[in-house]
Every structure is written in structure tokens, then in C-alpha cells.
């Protein structure tokens, strides 16, 4: 690889010989934020040439589900460090969940997140607005004001909590129709996942003496919400689907033409509840890791499009919030930096998905769901130069200490994954290159 | 807790050739030695009054019972007999794999103001006897304590001396003294065997 | 065995050794000088994140009678709310040069986590709704003293199995010792996934106490907390007693030779009738007195030898 100065602003690039979304080799000229030309190109002067031989080029990834912790828990993650982790993971846009402190439940809060993201400039940080005030599940947040704000919020979610009140959920679904919004539901019936529940309820939780919650706690809400979506004619999005039962409901709902979309996390595509045997809180996550049967069903559903998108649910936590007894530790695990490698390992290597389908699940469809018009575009002349270069054959053990996230609750630590992000471009600027982010 | 039988001397747990080494006491020799020591104990004590015989597990217990039987033959008196486990009092607990404790049985009359006769198979470093004296101290206050051993093989590490010895056996440190008794082992003899003295620091 | 975190840490011969040594330790309780020097110079910390006077004092006496220095540290109250992590708390204690940590925690798995952080030997003195291995050892000890070897014996464990830490340890240990176990409870109080678990590990489950009781050698009754009613686990105490209590009528069905145990604390009149608790066939008081002996044996086996405690 040769490049004069990759960090210089206004730099133009020729990406040489990348496999374009698995469709064959081509060169890409990136200049002034757009893909200027695609084909067999000679490098003009003053253009940095990036040898992309053996690399796959994908449209910049879009994460529908990221926790950046700022404001409120800057000791676990900041918009800056989370953006860096996102860039390192091949993302060009992330949707920052609303469960910060204060909660993103006003236009002002949403604009603040947007501005902080723009200041860092490594990835487009698009705020998600809360559905209910303070995520309390009692009163709608100012959905319309958030939508009208500079942040142009379109995705609303109480993530971390379920909008469990059926009446409130119905109203939210109806209300966001006015501005083309979507409610992203954390599907979890609180009465079936009460108090100390901290893992999947099943044989292992019985043996470990850990209070769990069953898959049905998720499935009853998914079932209820697709019926509400049908009734209201609104869009509903199911966050982090984790069970085979939810997949069945989604498959039926889609067959009925109900406007439901769904996401699955990288960890639910690979990790199973068996990992809880040692009570390591790194593997404590909500929804919980499920048995292998669920994992298989999720992979199949992602492959056949029943599940639309992969979303990370990147959830950084400070050490002192994780190093508790399992039941008392915080829920959540890191995801941004390894998401693409997990999908490569689990879905592409196994032949379940093509690169085209990966681009759909990690870029096109999430951008559509979130109404992010500048993202999830094709790699074609005239399109914004948002792309990621992936080395699909690179293989290595994940080292949590090399993470750009502030936190270390990395469930992939020590695991060998295939596929390494080589470079990420946001509107033509290299945000990640040569193993480091470039601000 | 790796070795289930680590409390037993290696002889019991190592099935090495039974005929290795050389026999230094036969079954008849052991019986004769016990009879002689029974006489000596009685003579020294001027009869069987206040005697309590305590064997140190594992083989000391069988020897104690046989000593008491011999005393009964000579004197026509049943001397109280019991067992005194010293496992918890050993000074090498930390260096050895964990040993399972054996039973301590003190005759109903107790040991206060009694003449306690401790019985063990082999006297070596003297550490077992020291441990036994500590164990006794926690159980009561005997008027006197005497020591009977079947074999004294020398190499003392503590100022300990037996009152009655079945046989003095000069040995090299590298050798092992292997005692087998009828009830305990199904065969009776004392052998000197070449080999490490692991677990034999007695 | 370096730690005692689960009854599953004990192979059959190890469990039998501990029970055998416990017999010798039991005698010490009748002596004037109740002290053995085996753990002289060792320091044991009873680190209790949950109150349990009975278990704590039992471990404390056990350690002291073995001449160890025993310190009680109460870490009650959620450390989460204090901003200190479990690891912080434990490392602070361990940094004082502790040889053994006896840990009681209201959350399942805490002792397992701690064992990965510290050099000290860790004994699980009850964790959440997971295990309580020394309780299982003393139950086995008490039963064996009364009815002998557990090989081929049939033990019914009856009660709130979902929320019991005793059931898991007992199930594992009793099976290690060769007993056949039947878990008896209403479906709501069975551990989750018990069907698959029973199939894999080879034990039985039943919802019908009257069917099981005539065939058992041991009826182990577990405490049922009245608070469970609010969770919808059963409708009323009256209904629970009729279905699953060891009532006077059921005592007649229990075989003559069978024994009754209860790891306590008892809810007399709920899971066990007052008569049953005081019957000659009841081991309940023996269970209490055996606690110290069994814990002495456990501490001795784990701490006496540096060789056994090497990493």
C-alpha cells in the first residue's frame, strides 16, 4: 500500500483492485466526498493509491443500535471513542440509543448528540429519540419536536426497556406516521422477565441457579406489536431479535404484508447461553444469549431476509459495572469493532450469505429503516464515498486490549474470527486506515 | 486431596514386589518381641495398675491390641486400649498431600493420671511421637507416658527415646522399613527395603 | 480439589474422605480441649455478603477449632450501590494475606467468580439459588450416620426447588455417593429445564408426593417461603401443605426405616408438621450439630496441605 498522507483533508484516493461487493474487481476514485469513477482507472497525480488487492469493498456500514453512553457515562464510552470504534469496525453511520443520562427525549438532547458526533467526525452519529419521557413508559416524549429538530430524528426507542403498555405502544406507532418515523421495540414483557432475571431461562439457568427469562417474554411482545402495526398501519422495528419463536412470528407477519422490520446482533448469531457456565458477566446481555437452536434460526432468518439487518447493540460498560456477581452486573457487550468479522465468519464463510446480502443487511436496509438517505447507497459513480474495505481472509484472535472503545467488556476476546476491516471511508475521507483512526 | 491412601505408609499402597529387600523380623519374631515388651511394661510399671495403651494409627493400633492381649496372658488383667490419631498434630501437614484423619478412641476411664503407653510400629525421626504427645496434651494429663515401638531404626531428629523396643535396626537413611501385620496386611513380617523414605519420616 | 465451589468438585473418594475425617472431627466437640493444631498459622476470612448467623458461626467455630485465625467480614448490602465492585471488595480482603475465603453471597456464581481472581482457597458457603456444598456434605454425613451407606438408597427432595441452593448441591452429592434422587415439587417450583437435566444426569422428578413417599429411605424437606405466593408459585399455604407438606398422615406412609431431614430453617406447619420435625426418625437436630464437624473437615482438606493447595 502506498499513500502520501492519508490524513490530509481533501485527499483523493484511488482504491485499486477491490472486489466490489463480491461482484468483481474494479478501481474506485474517491474525491470531494463522492465516488467519482468506477472501473479500470489510472491514478491522477496527487491521489493516494490504495492497493486493495484481495479486499472486498462494501458500502459503509450502518448500525441501527449503538450505545455511546455520552452524555452521562463518559467513563464507559464517549461519542468520540465510540465513533472511533465504529470507524474501526467499518461503520459510517451509527444510531445512538436514547438511554443516556439525561435521556435523549427532547429536541435539544438529540441535537446535542448530533453536534457532538459531527465534531468528532469519524462517523455520522444519528440520535435515536426516546419513545417515552425518561424511558419511564408512561408518557410520550416529544417525538414530533425531535423529528423536526436539526437532528431529524426518525427512529424512536426506549431500548433497554420495553414499551410494554399496549395502549402507549399503539399511540406511539400511530403518532410517528406523521413524519415517517419508526418505533424500534425492545421486545420484553416485563412481567415475564422480572426482578433478578439475568439470563436465558432453560436447563442451564436451572443448573446454575440463575434467575432467567424465557424466549416467550420476547415473543409475546413481538406478536403483539406486529398486530399493532397491522392495526395502525405503521412501521415497527424489532430490536435484537433473539429467539426462533420471534422469527416465526416475523416470518408470518411479513407474509401478511405487515410493515415490520427486525435486526439481529452479531452475538446472537454466534454466542450461546452455554458460555454462562463460568458466570462471566462479559456474557451477560439483554436479550440474553440463547441456546444453539435459536442461534441457528436467527442465522437462517438473516439469510432469507426475515431479519432485515445486523445491528450491534454495542453496549460498553466500565469495569466496575461488570465485575459484580453475575446477577448484579450490567447487561451488555461490545460489538462495533467485531461485527463485520462475526458476520463474515458466521454467514459468509459458511455460504449462508453473499457479500451483496451482507451489504444489504449491514448497510442498505438499516439505512432505509432509519431513513438515512446519505448512507446505504450503492458503490457507484456519483454516490457518497462511504465504504469499507475488508480483508475477508485475515484471521486472528480478538484482543480486547486493542479495542478503541473505552470499555473492555468484549465477548469476542480470545476468539478467532475471520475478516478484518482494512479501511473505512466517510464521504471520501479515510476515517480508519493502517490500524488507526484518522481524525 | 490427591492420594486417597496417603495416610497409610507407602508399603500398603505400593504393590511393589513383596519379596524385595530382606526380612529382618518374621511373624514369630514380632510375636516374641511383643511378649517381651509386655513383660517389660508390667515390670517397669510394677503391675498393670493405671495402664492405658494407645496405638498410633494405622499399624500401631493393631500392635497395641496385641500388646494388651499379651499383658492379659501374663497378668490376667484387661488393660484399657485405644487409638490416638496424630494426623492433625503433625508438623509436616503442609508439605504432604492431605491425609485423611483416623479414629481416636480413648477408653472410657480417660487418660488423666494414667500411665499411657503409646505404641507405634517404627520409631524414626521422632516427629510422630512429638505429635502424639501434643495430641495427648489436648485430651488430658497422664501421670506418665511411655513409648513402645516394634522397630527403632535410628536417625532421630528430635530428642525422643523409646522405653521399650522390639528390635533396634540400624538402617541407612535411603532405606525403608516396611512393617506388615497379620490383621492389617494379611501377612506379617518386617523388611528393610531400598528406596526413598517418602512418607516415612517417623 | 483446590476450592469447594460446587458439590460437583467432589469426586466420590474425595467426598468419602471428607465424610470420614468429619467423623473424627465430630469427636473433638466432646473433648474438653476443643482444638486441633492442623491449621495453625492459617488465616481464614468469612466473607458474608448475606446474613447467615448459623452458617457463619459454624464456619467460624470450625476454623477456630482447627487453630486457624478466623476473621468475619460482613459485606452486606449491595456493593453495586456502594460503587464498589465485587472484585474490588474481594481483592481488598485477599490483599491482607488470606489463605482461605469462605464466601456467602446472595447472587449465584459469586464464589466461582471470586475463585478466578484470588490465590486463596475459596469455599462456597451458599450462593444465591445455586449451591451450598457444605450443607449437602453435612446432610450426607448425618444421613449416613443414621442409615449407613447411601449406595442404592432413594432420597426424595421436596419443596421449593427453584429457589433452593441446597437442592442442587444435594442432588449432585447424593448421586456421587450412589443414591437415587427424586425431586418432588409442584411444576411452578421445579428448577427451569429440569426435564432435560433429569434425563441427562439420571434422576427422577414427580409432582406427586404421595406416590413417591412410600418408596423412599430419606425424605428431605426444603423450606418454602410464604413470599413465593405473590409470584404465583402456589395459591395458599394451606394448599401447599395438602399437596407437598410432610403431614401427620404422610408420616404414616413413610417407611418405618426412613429418615426425615430438613436443612432449615423450618416453616413448621407449612412444609413439615411440628410432629415430624420432632420425630425419632428426624435428623434435623443432628444436622445442626454435624455442621461444625463437616466444615472442619472441609477446611482441613482444603487448607492443611500446601501441596494440595498449589495452583
Automatic annotation (TrEMBL), chain A:
GO molecular function, one term: dihydroorotase activity
Organism: Luteipulveratus flavus
Pfam families: DHOase
Database matches in HAMAP family: PyrC_classI_B (MF_00220_B)
Keyword GTP-binding included in the entry's annotation: no
Signal among keywords: no
Family: Belongs to the metallo-dependent hydrolases superfamily. DHOase family. Class I DHOase subfamily.
Enzymatic reactions: (S)-dihydroorotate + H2O = N-carbamoyl-L-aspartate + H(+)
Entry annotation: catalytic residues: 313
The EC number(s) this enzyme carries: 3.5.2.3
Keyword line: Hydrolase, Metal-binding, Pyrimidine biosynthesis, Zinc
Binding-site residues for Zn(2+) 2, renumbered to this chain: 159, 186, 240
PANTHER family reported in the protein's UniProt record: ALLANTOINASE
Residues at which substrate binds: 67-69, 99, 286, 317, 331-332
Entry protein name: Dihydroorotase
Function: Catalyzes the reversible cyclization of carbamoyl aspartate to dihydroorotate.
Cofactor(s) demanded: Zn(2+)
Cofactor binding note of this UniProt entry: Binds 2 Zn(2+) ions per subunit.
Stretches assigned to the Dihydroorotase catalytic domain: 56-244
UniProt pathway annotation: Pyrimidine metabolism; UMP biosynthesis via de novo pathway; (S)-dihydroorotate from bicarbonate: step 3/3
Chain sites annotated for binding Zn(2+) 1: 65, 67, 159, 313
TrEMBL record, chain B:
Sequence motif PRPP-binding, residues: 116-128
UniProt GO molecular function: uracil phosphoribosyltransferase activity
Segments traversing the membrane: none
Region entry Disordered, spans: 1-23
Pfam family, one: Pribosyltran
Annotated Low complexity bias: 1-20
Major enzyme class: transferase
EC number(s) reported in the record: 2.4.2.9
Keyword Glycosyltransferase: yes
Reactions listed under catalytic activity: UMP + diphosphate = 5-phospho-alpha-D-ribose 1-diphosphate + uracil
UniProt keyword Transcription, yes or no: yes
Domain Phosphoribosyltransferase: 31-166
Family annotation (HAMAP family): PyrR
Family per similarity comment: Belongs to the purine/pyrimidine phosphoribosyltransferase family. PyrR subfamily.
Name of this chain's protein: Bifunctional protein PyrR
Automatic annotation (TrEMBL), chain C:
Naturally occurring in which organism (per UniProt): Luteipulveratus flavus
This enzyme's EC code(s): 2.1.3.2
Residue positions binding L-aspartate: 82, 165, 223
Quaternary context: Heterododecamer (2C3:3R2) of six catalytic PyrB chains organized as two trimers (C3), and six regulatory PyrI chains organized as three dimers (R2).
Name this polypeptide is given: Aspartate carbamoyltransferase
UniProt-annotated binding residues for carbamoyl phosphate: 54-55, 104, 132, 135, 264-265
Function of the protein: Catalyzes the condensation of carbamoyl phosphate and aspartate to form carbamoyl aspartate and inorganic phosphate, the committed step in the de novo pyrimidine nucleotide biosynthesis pathway.
PANTHER family: ASPARTATE CARBAMOYLTRANSFERASE, ORNITHINE CARBAMOYLTRANSFERASE, MITOCHONDRIAL
Superkingdom in the source lineage: Bacteria
Domain named Aspartate/ornithine carbamoyltransferase Asp/Orn-binding: residues: 152-302
Domain spans labelled Aspartate/ornithine carbamoyltransferase carbamoyl-P binding: 2-144
One of the record's GO molecular function terms: aspartate carbamoyltransferase activity
Entry similarity comment: Belongs to the aspartate/ornithine carbamoyltransferase superfamily. ATCase family.
Pathway(s) it belongs to: Pyrimidine metabolism; UMP biosynthesis via de novo pathway; (S)-dihydroorotate from bicarbonate: step 2/3
Keyword terms: Pyrimidine biosynthesis, Transferase
Amino acid at each position: 500500500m502506498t499513500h502520501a498522507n492519508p490524513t490530509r483533508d481533501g485527499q483523493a484516493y484511488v482504491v485499486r483492485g477491490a472486489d466490489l461487493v463480491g461482484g468483481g474487481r474494479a478501481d474506485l476514485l474517491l474525491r470531494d466526498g463522492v465516488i467519482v469513477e468506477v472501473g479500470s482507472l489510472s491514478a491522477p497525480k496527487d491521489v493516494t493509491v490504495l492497493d486493495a488487492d484481495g479486499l472486498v469493498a462494501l458500502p459503509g456500514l450502518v448500525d441501527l443500535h449503538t450505545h455511546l453512553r455520552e452524555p452521562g457515562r463518559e467513563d464507559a464510552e464517549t461519542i468520540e471513542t465510540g465513533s472511533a470504534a465504529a470507524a474501526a469496525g467499518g461503520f459510517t453511520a451509527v444510531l445512538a440509543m436514547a438511554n443516556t443520562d439525561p435521556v435523549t427525549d427532547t429536541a435539544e438532547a438529540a441535537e446535542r448528540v448530533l453536534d457532538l458526533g459531527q465534531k468528532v467526525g469519524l462517523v455520522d452519529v444519528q440520535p435515536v429519540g426516546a419513545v417515552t419521557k425518561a424511558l419511564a413508559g408512561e408518557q410520550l416524549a416529544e417525538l414530533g419536536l425531535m423529528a423536526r429538530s436539526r437532528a431529524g430524528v426518525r427512529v424512536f426507542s426506549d431500548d433497554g426497556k420495553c414499551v410494554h403498555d399496549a395502549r402507549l405502544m399503539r399511540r406511539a406507532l400511530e403518532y410517528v406516521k406523521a413524519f415517517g418515523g419508526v418505533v424500534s421495540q425492545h421486545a420484553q414483557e416485563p412481567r415475564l422477565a422480572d426482578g433478578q432475571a439475568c439470563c436465558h431461562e432453560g436447563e442451564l439457568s436451572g443448573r446454575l441457579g440463575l434467575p432467567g427469562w424465557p424466549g416467550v417474554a420476547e415473543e409475546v411482545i413481538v406478536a403483539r406489536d406486529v398486530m399493532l402495526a397491522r392495526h395502525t398501519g405503521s412501521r415497527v422495528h424489532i430490536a435484537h431479535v433473539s429467539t426462533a419463536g420471534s422469527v416465526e412470528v416475523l416470518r408470518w407477519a411479513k407474509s401478511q404484508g405487515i410493515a415490520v422490520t427486525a435486526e439481529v446482533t452479531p452475538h446472537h448469531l454466534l454466542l450461546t447461553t452455554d458460555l454462562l457456565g463460568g458466570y462471566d458477566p462479559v456474557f451477560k446481555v439483554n436479550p440474553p444469549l440463547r441456546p444453539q437452536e435459536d442461534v441457528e434460526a436467527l442465522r437462517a432468518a438473516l439469510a432469507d431476509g426475515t431479519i432485515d439487518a445486523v445491528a450491534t447493540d454495542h453496549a460498553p460498560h466500565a469495569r466496575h459495572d461488570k465485575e459484580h456477581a453475575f446477577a448484579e452486573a450490567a447487561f451488555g457487550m461490545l460489538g462495533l469493532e467485531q461485527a463485520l468479522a462475526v458476520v463474515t465468519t458466521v454467514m459468509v464463510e459458511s455460504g449462508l450469505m453473499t457479500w451483496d446480502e451482507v451489504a444489504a443487511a449491514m448497510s442498505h436496509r438499516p439505512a432505509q429503516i432509519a431513513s438515512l438517505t446519505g448512507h446505504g447507497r450503492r458503490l457507484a459513480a456519483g454516490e457518497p464515498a462511504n465504504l469499507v474495505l475488508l480483508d475477508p481472509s485475515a484471521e486472528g484472535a480478538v484482543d480486547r486490549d486493542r479495542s478503541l472503545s473505552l470499555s473492555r467488556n468484549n465477548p469476542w476476546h480470545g476468539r478467532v474470527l475471520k475478516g478484518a476491516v482494512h479501511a473505512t471511508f466517510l464521504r471520501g475521507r479515510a476515517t480508519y486506515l493502517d490500524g488507526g483512526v484518522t481524525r | 486431596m490427591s492420594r486417597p491412601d496417603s495416610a497409610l505408609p507407602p508399603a500398603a499402597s505400593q504393590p511393589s514386589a513383596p519379596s524385595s529387600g530382606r526380612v529382618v523380623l518374621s511373624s514369630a519374631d514380632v510375636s516374641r518381641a511383643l511378649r517381651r515388651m509386655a513383660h517389660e511394661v508390667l515390670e517397669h510399671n510394677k503391675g498393670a495398675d493405671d495402664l492405658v495403651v494407645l496405638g498410633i494409627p494405622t499399624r500401631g493400633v493393631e500392635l497395641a491390641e496385641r500388646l494388651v492381649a499379651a499383658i492379659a496372658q501374663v497378668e490376667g488383667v484387661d488393660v484399657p486400649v485405644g487409638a490416638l490419631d496424630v494426623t492433625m498434630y503433625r508438623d509436616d501437614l503442609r508439605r504432604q498431600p492431605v491425609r485423611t484423619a483416623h479414629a481416636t478412641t480413648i477408653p472410657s476411664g480417660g487418660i488423666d493420671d494414667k500411665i499411657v503407653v503409646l505404641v507405634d510400629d517404627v520409631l524414626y525421626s521422632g516427629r510422630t511421637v512429638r505429635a502424639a504427645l501434643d495430641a495427648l496434651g489436648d485430651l488430658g494429663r497422664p501421670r506418665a507416658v511411655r513409648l513402645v515401638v516394634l522397630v527403632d531404626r535410628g536417625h532421630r531428629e528430635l530428642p525422643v527415646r523409646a522405653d521399650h523396643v522390639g528390635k533396634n535396626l540400624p538402617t541407612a537413611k535411603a532405606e525403608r522399613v516396611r512393617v506388615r501385620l497379620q490383621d492389617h496386611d494379611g501377612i506379617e513380617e518386617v523388611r528393610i527395603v531400598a528406596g526413598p523414605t517418602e512418607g516415612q519420616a517417623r | 480439589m483446590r476450592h469447594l465451589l460446587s458439590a460437583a468438585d467432589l469426586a466420590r473418594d474425595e467426598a468419602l474422605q471428607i465424610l470420614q475425617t468429619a467423623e473424627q472431627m465430630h469427636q473433638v466437640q466432646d473433648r474438653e480441649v476443643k482444638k486441633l493444631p492442623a491449621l495453625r498459622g492459617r488465616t481464614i476470612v468469612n466473607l458474608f455478603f448475606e446474613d447467615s448467623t448459623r452458617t457463619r458461626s459454624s464456619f467460624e467455630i470450625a476454623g477456630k477449632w482447627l487453630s486457624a485465625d478466623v476473621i468475619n467480614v460482613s459485606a452486606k448490602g449491595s456493593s453495586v450501590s456502594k460503587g464498589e465492585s465485587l472484585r474490588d471488595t474481594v481483592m481488598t480482603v485477599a490483599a491482607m494475606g488470606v489463605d482461605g475465603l469462605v464466601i456467602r453471597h446472595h447472587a449465584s456464581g459469586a464464589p466461582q467468580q471470586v475463585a478466578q481472581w484470588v490465590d486463596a482457597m475459596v469455599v462456597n458457603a451458599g450462593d444465591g439459588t445455586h449451591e451450598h456444598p457444605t450443607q449437602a456434605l453435612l446432610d450426607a454425613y448425618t444421613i449416613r450416620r443414621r442409615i449407613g451407606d447411601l449406595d442404592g438408597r432413594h432420597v426424595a427432595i421436596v419443596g421449593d426447588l427453584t429457589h433452593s441452593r441446597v437442592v442442587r448441591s444435594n442432588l449432585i452429592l447424593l448421586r456421587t455417593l450412589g443414591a437415587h434422587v427424586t425431586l418432588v415439587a409442584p411444576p411452578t417450583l421445579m428448577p427451569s429445564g429440569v426435564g432435560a437435566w433429569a434425563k441427562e444426569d439420571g434422576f427422577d422428578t414427580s409432582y406427586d408426593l404421595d406416590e413417591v413417599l412410600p418408596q423412599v429411605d430419606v425424605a428431605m424437606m426444603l423450606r418454602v417461603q410464604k413470599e413465593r405466593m405473590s409470584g404465583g408459585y402456589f395459591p395458599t399455604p394451606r394448599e401447599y401443605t395438602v399437596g407437598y407438606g410432610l403431614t401427620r398422615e404422610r408420616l404414616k406412609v413413610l417407611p418405618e426405616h426412613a429418615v426425615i431431614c430438613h436443612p432449615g430453617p423450618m416453616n413448621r406447619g407449612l412444609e413439615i408438621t411440628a410432629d415430624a420435625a420432632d420425630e425419632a426418625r428426624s435428623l434435623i437436630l443432628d444436622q445442626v450439630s454435624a455442621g461444625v464437624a463437616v466444615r472442619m473437615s472441609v477446611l482441613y482438606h482444603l487448607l492443611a496441605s500446601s501441596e494440595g493447595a498449589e495452583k
